[in-house]
Structure formats: structure tokens, C-alpha cells
Amino acid sequence: MANTENNILPSHASVVVIGGGVMGCSTLYHLAKSGVTDAILLERNQVTSGTTWHSAAQVRALRSSHNLTDLIRYSIQLYGSLEAETGQQVGWINKGSLSIATNPDRMVHVRRQEALARLFGVAAEMITPGEAKERWPLMHSDDVLGAVWSPDDGRVSPSDLCAALIKGAKSRGARIFEQTGVTGIQTKNGRICGVETKNGVIKTEKIALCTGLWSRRAAAMAGVEVPVWPCEHFYLLTKPLPGISGNLPTLSDHDGHLYIRDDSGGLLVGCFEPMGKQIDPDRLGEDFAFQLLPEDWDHFEPMMHNALHRLPALEHAEVKMLLNGPESFTPDGSFLLGEAAETAGLFLGCGMNSVGVATGGGAGMALAHCMVNGAPPMDLHEVDPKRFDTACNDVGALAARVPEVLGKHYEITYPGRQWSTARGLRVLPLHQKWVEEKAHFGQVFGYERPLYFNKTTEPVLRFDKADWFDQVGAEVDIAQNGLAITDLSSFGKIEVTGAGAEAALNYICSNDMTRPPGHLTYSLMLNANGGINADLTVMRLSKTHYRLFVGTAALKRDVAWLSRHLSGDALLADVTDHYATLGVMGPKTAQLGVALNAAWLDEIGYFKHADGQIDGIAVTAARLSYIGEAGWELTCRSDDALQLYHLLSAAGGRPIGSLAQTSMRIEKGFISYGHDVDTDVTPAMAGLAFALDTKSDFIGKQALQNAPAPVKRLVTIILDDLNAVPLGNEPVMHEDRIIGKTTSAAFGYRVGQPVLLAMLDHACCVDGQSVSVDIAGVRFNGQVKCGPAYDPEGRRMRNAV
Ligand SMILES: Cc1cc2nc3c(=O)[nH]c(=O)nc-3n(C[C@H](O)[C@H](O)[C@H](O)COP(=O)(O)OP(=O)(O)OC[C@H]3O[C@@H](n4cnc5c(N)ncnc54)[C@H](O)[C@@H]3O)c2cc1C
Question: E-assigned strands of 413-456?
Fold first, then answer.
């Protein structure tokens, strides 16, 4: 179908797309549409022959973030218009989708989804069980409490879709080569320079790797880690059934782990069972084309039971087959889109986690945009391939994790939910100590980090007041009134050294990096558009030696960004594992210098750092605070961390976990990357203009100078109702108008009220402005504060009280 008339491989192509599934076809189409008319696609079998051909191909718009939702909305528009453009049908059926709830917590979940849909401008409404039954008459609805109805959703024919995309791409000059597997990827000086096939080598500077479940191995050919691993994925197909005529909406019964739709007059009943079945991709082999995996009725049986409950008519249906096809998953359930950290020019579009057809149109557009323009068209940090540590790419960890990822696809997204598999991949230097202190751990970038201490029982997840509420409150009290120890060792630590370090960092970072040694500088790294790529705290240890502290999960991304912008006379080293950092915070730090026989600590001014000894341990102490209480962050060799902890503990220090720290940073209005800011946010929007050095030239400066005044701004909201449990990502209303969304939320123990950060319309960013926050369909009143909820002048952290 797709072979080009001229099937001689070119010796060079601006872009080579590898893989002819929906991701590869969409990327090729969008590359050609963007003017990359010599782009080629290499497929080792036939197009669609991997996972795409047997997809259930439902397209449901709502995702967890605005931009991921926008990618699917783009797909919906594209799928609705491709036939007119190309003459090739895509089988787009727009019958909407229906998500039912059969328990109270699921009702909260779907109400949150409905609120999110309104925030993102997606059509969705809550309907009654009766109205749901009208839309799906075969459904047993006695146990249904309510449903969300989304009229714009639909489904597509995946093979026809790919045929249309290919037609559109070829009409603009792009070419497809089937039966042309890529056997090697050539790199030079850390950059892509060619692909090898059995039919010859094609020189290229850019590759779009869209190889589905085979991506881990394919990326390894370019020295790139891609933590993608497949699971078996099942749906049942029946012969035609009375009661099914024409097309119906897609029905999701998430409590029953099921999705259901009509198929040629019969039923298609698919599942995301609680624990999936992983499969080694090497077992499938390279010639796995248009193939399926064996039926597994024992595994499907509990789902069949649920399906019979939801659709009693299924009992009399004649089964056509139990389709079992492989699909790829990643350790956090989101796909990979963007340039790889390790090798410039290798762009990933893979690991689609069961939304490849829904997202494919938009994701292919975004990937092509990224390759042509150097960045995606909107912030896509949730799918940035650089978000995983090496430990996450371990085969054992992947094989353990992906069955749970498949299962969590339909789980209720309770706050505080943690993964139960592939834990302990990386531990902090004080891990054993934290185990002894009965820490409840959360996993970030592979690290186990204490969320709170003194866990007595396994917490039960819920949407109202959390099981850990009182314990976190007690830890905040330690920081506010005593001596708290925070473990910051997972923060990425990057050293930049050399004669060119100052000039290079002064260009890459937005703040003044020429300050003399001993100064701490909070800075941003902006992209060329002035969007916030990263935030970091920088120590200048000597004239030619800087130590950068970056977010735990940002390390790989920030190292890649720095490496690509540093010149030869500045060297970069990731020293994260060499050093531990313990924060010691609270009013009792006033006596700590004396107690530790380290009076030098007291001489360090605010936002300064100094080296010294504490009982023979070499420490770099920095005076700053992320939680708003006075203290230092003490960095020592990882091997010395336990001894330092014992000294701090003997002086009265008690450990506090990251939930207490989060509550306190929100009260202080301090941002967290990925929550409150990302590349769509400029410093002015986030109230971070103080981190711009107007005297120097830095990346993004020109864009900021030409930018119009921001229309949104980050502010604090304090809610009146002490029982409100905001989680972030909720709509904020003024009267009946949505004026923005919450970005971070917690109970603020020091102010005694729920506190949120929110990005709101500029006109509403006025102290005392009344607003309401929609939390699962209930509106909670609150007031805007254009500054921190707690200690707005920052007197406590400066020790000025
Ligand atoms: C049963 C089932 C139901 C699903 N239902 C839905 C749904 O309702 N909605 C939805 O959105 N998604 C659904 N999905 C998921 C969706 O089908 C996938 O996410 C999507 O098809 C993945 O597309 P892809 O292009 O990433 O991978 P693939 O379609 O697998 O394409 C990858 C291609 O790369 C080729 N390749 C690999 N290595 C090389 C190499 N070295 N050289 C050249 N070519 C190579 C392979 O041959 C293959 O053709 C479902 C999946 C399954 C299994």
C-alpha cells in the first residue's frame, strides 16, 4: 500500500522517521506539512503492522493536563478533516464517551474530571444513571451513581488513519520504505549522523524514533536510554448481538476495569485489569507483524465476570475472539516525546501507554514541531524523555512496574497514591536511618524520599482529610517552633568549572552569575522564548567553580541543557551522588552554631554560603530556606551524612518529610517546577522577575523584552473552609467565570487554613479578591493574596524576628 514508486533509498534525508505505526505516520505527515519534504519513513515490516493495526482506537480528549488534552483535541480535529484533505477515509465516528461511577470515591474522581474538562474547555457534563442508561440501553445500571458524558469523543479506524496520513505526507514529497529495518544508528561527537539498513546507509542529522514497544532496543543503538516495556492488552470481540444497532458511545466502567463499544454489530470489551502481564519484547522477534499473542482466558476471567455484570446480554453473545496484543508502557504511565538527553538529534515519539491512537495526531504534530523548531509548540514536560533516571531503565524494574502501570490506568487518582512495584531503585545516604524513623516513602526519579515519619499503619488513600494530616502538622510544628532536619540529598548537584564557567553560566542563567565567591544565587534557565526551562540555586565556590542545585527530577534535563550550551573552556560534572545535603531549619537554629561548636555558621549572611568544619566533617553551609524558617542547608560528602545527622539530632533536630516541606513552601509562595511553572510560564507571570539580571545578556532575554504584558499571574489563595481538601489542578472561579487554575495546594498548618497557589487572570490578581475553587463539583470560597500566606516579609527566614 505504502511503498513508494521510487524505492531506492536516498543517501541523505533531513529527517528519518523509524517505525510505521500511528506515531511514525503522523510525525512524517507533520514533518512534510512543515516543509521537510525530503523526510523518509523506514518500516521494517509493513506500516501499521506493530501495535497500531489492532488498536481499539478510541479517542477520548480529557487528560491530566491542559496541553496533553490539547494534543488529543488536535487529533480529533485532524481525524475529522483528513478525509477531505486526502480523499482517504479514516473511519472517524463521533459518538461521544460515557464514564460511569459505581462508588462514592469514583464519583469524586469523575466530578474532578468534569471540573477539569470545563477548565480545559472540553465538552463534558455530569449525567444521572437514568440518562447514562438511555445512552447505553444494554448496560446494567442499578449500581451506577452517576456518569460523565463527553460528546466530542469518538473513535477511528487506525489502519485507515495511517493510510490517510501517509497519503498526505507523500503528496508533499515524503517517502516511505517498507521492509527496511534499521539495523544501526550512527553518531559522531554525541550527535546523530546516519542510519544503517540492510539496503544501505542514509546520512541524516535527525531521527524520529517511533518504534513502539521495540523502542528500548532501538534507542540503545544510539546510546540512549528509553524505559519502554510492553504488556499484553486484551479485548473481547463478539458476533452481532440484538440490541446493538448503529454506533454507540464508548462506555467506560473504570471500577470494573472495562471499556466497551460496539464493533460491527457486536461488542468490543477491553480491560485494564489491576495487574497486567508484561512480555519481553525480544520474545516477539523482529518479524512480529500483524500478529497477536495467545488468548489467556484465565487471566481475563475476572474481567469477564465484571463484563457480564455490566452487560448481562453478553451471556448470550457468541465470542469471536479474545484479542491479545502487545502495547508499550513507561514507568510513570506517560509517553516519551522530545529530544533524548544522551544524543543530540534523536527525537523520541514512543511508549504510548494505550493512548497512541488518541494522542497520535497531536503527538506527531508536536514531535515534528520539536524537530523543526527545536522545542515543542507548548510545554510538554510531563512527557519529556529526560524525566527518568538510569535506574528506571533496568529490565527488572521495567518488567516489575509496567503491569502496575497498565492497572493504574483506570484507578482512582487519590492524592498521595504511590507505586507499589519497582521501589528502592535509588536510596538516599540516610535511607537506613529513615527506615528506622518509620518513614513513609515516595519515589521521585528513582529515589526513595521520606514523605513523613512515624508511620504507624499503612495509610488509606482518600479525597478528604488525609491519614497523615496530623503527623505532617506535627512536623510543621517542629520547623516552626523547634529544629527540623530535611533531607535534600536527592536534589541534582552539578558542578561547572573552568576559566569559561562564569561567562557561560551568565549567559545560560537569567540571574547575575558574576557575583563573587560566597554568594548564593537563585536563578532561572529560560528558553529562547523566555519560558522557564528550570529553576536552580547556584553556589559560587571559587572564581572558576560553581555548584548548581537543581530539582530532583530535573537533573537529566538540566545536565543536557547545560551541556549543549557550555563551551569548551567550561566543564560540567554531575556530582549528585558524591554529596548529601541536610537542611536544618527552625527558630532553634539560633543556638545551633554554639551547640555544634561551629560558630562560623552564625556568621553566614542570608543567601551566602561558607565552608567550615562541624566536628571534623567538612561542610558547605548555605543560608537560605525553602520553607520560610531560618536555617542552613548543609552539604557534606555522602559518606559523612550519617555522622552529621547524629550531631544535628543530638542537638535536638528531628527529621521532617517532604509533605511538611511542601505545605510550608506553598504557604511561602515558593514555586515548584512542573506544578507552578513550566516553559509556558514567563518570569513575570510567576513573580520571578527578581531572578533576571537586566545588565547581562542571557538566553530568552530578548524574547522577554519583546513580550507583551502577561495576562496571567501566580498568586496565593487562602480558603475559608478548613475542611476543604484542594489538590491542585482545579478551576478557580470569580462569580461564574473561570479565571484560572490552582497549581499547588496543601493545608497550611502555620496559617491554619488551606492554601493554594493559582495562575489567574491578571485583572483578578488583587489582594482580598473573592474567588471560589471548584473541588470535585463543590465551590469553596477564598481570597486572593498577592504574596505569601505566611510571613510575607520573610522576617523569620532571615532571622529578623
Ligand atoms: C488491544 C489494544 C487496544 C488499544 N486501544 C487503544 C485505544 O482505544 N485508543 C488509543 O489511543 N490507543 C489504544 N491502544 C494503543 C495504541 O494502539 C498504541 O499506543 C499505538 O498503536 C502505538 O503506535 P506506535 O506508532 O507507537 O507503535 P507501533 O504501531 O507498534 O509502530 C511501531 C513500528 O515500528 C516498527 N519498528 C520497530 N523497530 C524497527 C526498526 N528497527 N526499523 C524499522 N521499523 C521498526 C515496527 O515494525 C512497528 O510497525 C491499544 C493497544 C492495544 C494493544
Answer: 426-427, 440-444, 447-452
